[in-house]
Here is the input.
Amino acid sequence: MDFVKLSRIQMIFWFAMAAITLVAVAIAVPMGKLEAVYFFIPVLCVVLALLRRWQLKRIIKSSGEKKEREAKQAQEA
Here is the structure.
């Protein structure tokens, strides 16, 4: 499995976790089972998803530069 696929899967996972935890906390807080402080968990999941998105863009850019470099070396040889 290449890094692009892996990074996409991880990004989708963190966005899904953000949605799931937001719903769970939004239900549990009014019921009195959790305190409102737990709303930081979905925020943390979104931050991790955005970090994966940033990393994905860097991986795609890096692989494009690598392909260009290899093509240039192949032309020179």
Summary: The chain has two helices and no strands.
